[in-house]
């Protein structure tokens, strides 16, 4: 990492957590971000859910909630960038403070509550980058006070259709009361059925794009097979495994460990990777997987891939390692694939399950 970015990361960490994040986005909008561009190579090129990726390392939702800096994050090297979560109407989110660094644990706890400026702003931002190179997805959510949450996802899909390279149906955030109930069998049947109907209608007007489903790491093992089956039945192109966890491992050292909300970062790595492997076993290669949770270096990204992920996403580790992390992970993935005798990173997918 350059001296400038080391100093910048250090200074930002001295600010309160949410203020540091807001400041980071403002700096990126002002053009004060990395300029390396999307990283790619013959080894790193891969495919997930119908997306052709220059490299398998993506930015997870939550960093750029309002689609303000997708191209700045692509310039940091990411192979794809997921913006959101966006809800139909603007939403203030939960009361502050609601974002906490667990420095001793290299982790983050958030209870943001889908704070965002709504579909009008998000759509405007996506339209503004029309014709730009790079894969930008939209992570869709539901308003906290919605009477029909499935309808909120349908509205997001309809409004943003034709402007995003892919969509993620986020039913796994722990910070909107009752949202994870949409992972239940009946609720998911209704939601995915309505999404599939809407997609069919929209696809008749313009080309279809991939739709992913994001699930929680706290899902019961007995439910994994059912979730995979429903996702496949309704044409989901990939599952993103996983969101933040409500668990609090005994290993946590930070004084913020007891804060409410979703835990991400290093303490989530082992659990999310175990759940990912279970999804991979249930999927049997019939639906693609994206691995998320606790990735802080190339070894952990590679472990997700070997556990069955065709691509990975990260966010929390940027808080501790800065933007150079993307290039470091890509270089490490390439080296590890070569060392293991794989011609491409795609050849390593699920290697630990065989």
- Fourth CATH level, the homologous superfamily: Aldolase class I
Annotated CATH architecture = Alpha-Beta Barrel
In what order do the strands lie side by side in the largest sheet?
3-4-7-8-9-10-12-13
Q: Given the C-alpha coordinates, what overall shape results?
A: globular
Write the layout of secondary structure elements.
Layout: H1 3-12, H2 17-29, E1 46-48, E2 51-53, E3 57-59, H3 70-75, E4 80-86, E5 99-102, E6 107-110, H4 118-128, E7 136-140, H5 149-160, E8 166-170, H6 185-203, E9 211-215, H7 221-233, E10 238-241, E11 262-265, H8 269-283, E12 288-292, H9 298-306, E13 311-314, H10 316-321, H11 324-339
Parallel strand pairs: 3-4, 3-13, 4-7, 7-8, 8-9, 9-10, 10-12, 12-13
Antiparallel strand pairs: 1-2, 5-6, 6-11
Helix pairs in contact: 5-6, 6-7, 7-8, 9-11
Description of the molecule:
With 354 residues, this protein is an alpha/beta fold. The chain has one domain (33-353): Alpha-Beta Barrel (TIM Barrel). It is built from eleven helices and 13 strands. The protein has an eight-stranded parallel β-barrel with strand order 3-4-7-8-9-10-12-13, surrounded by five helices. The protein has a three-stranded antiparallel beta sheet with strand order 5-6-11, with no helix packed on it. Strands 1-2 form a two-stranded antiparallel ribbon. Helix 6 (185-203) links the parallel strand 8 and strand 9 (211-215). The chain is globular, with a radius of gyration of 19 Å. 50% of the residues are buried.
């Amino acid at each position: 990492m350059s001296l400038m970015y080391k100093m910048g990361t250090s200074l930002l960490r001295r600010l309160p957590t949410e203020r540091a994040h807001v400041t980071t986005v403002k700096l990126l909008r002002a053009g004060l971000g990395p300029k390396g561009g999307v990283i790619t190579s013959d080894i790193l090129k891969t495919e997930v859910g119908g997306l052709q990726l220059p490299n398998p390392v993506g930015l997870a939702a939550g960093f750029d909630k309002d689609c303000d800096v997708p191209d700045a994050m692509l310039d940091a090297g990411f192979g794809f960038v997921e913006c959101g979560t966006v809800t139909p109407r603007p939403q203030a989110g939960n009361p502050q403070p609601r974002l906490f660094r667990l420095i001793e644990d290299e982790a983050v706890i958030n209870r943001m509550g889908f704070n965002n400026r709504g579909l009008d702003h998000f759509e405007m931002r996506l339209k503004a980058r029309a014709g730009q190179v790079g894969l930008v997805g939209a992570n869709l959510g539901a308003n906290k006070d919605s009477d029909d949450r499935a309808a909120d996802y349908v509205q997001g899909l309809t409004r943003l259709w034709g402007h995003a390279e892919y969509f993620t149906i986020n039913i796994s955030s722990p910070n909107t009361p009752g949202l994870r109930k949409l992972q239940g069998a009946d609720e998911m049947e209704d939601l995915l059925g309505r999404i599939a109907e809407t997609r069919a209608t929209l696809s008749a007007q313009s080309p279809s794009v991939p739709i992913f489903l994001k699930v929680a790491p706290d899902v019961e093992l007995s439910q994994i097979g059912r979730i995979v089956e429903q996702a496949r039945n309704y044409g989901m192109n990939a599952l993103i495994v996983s969101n933040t966890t409500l668990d609090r491992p005994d290993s946590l050292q930070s004084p913020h460990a007891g804060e409410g909300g979703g835990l991400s970062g290093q303490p989530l790595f082992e659990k999310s990777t175990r759940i990912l492997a279970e999804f991979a076993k249930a999927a049997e290669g019939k639906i693609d997987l994206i691995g998320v949770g606790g990735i802080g270096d190339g070894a952990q990204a590679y472990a997700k891939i070997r556990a069955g992920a065709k691509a990975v996403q990260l966010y929390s580790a940027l808080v501790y390692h800065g933007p150079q992390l993307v290039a470091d992970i890509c270089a490490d993935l390439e080296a590890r694939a070569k060392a293991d005798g794989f011609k491409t990173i795609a050849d390593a997918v699920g290697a630990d399950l065989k």
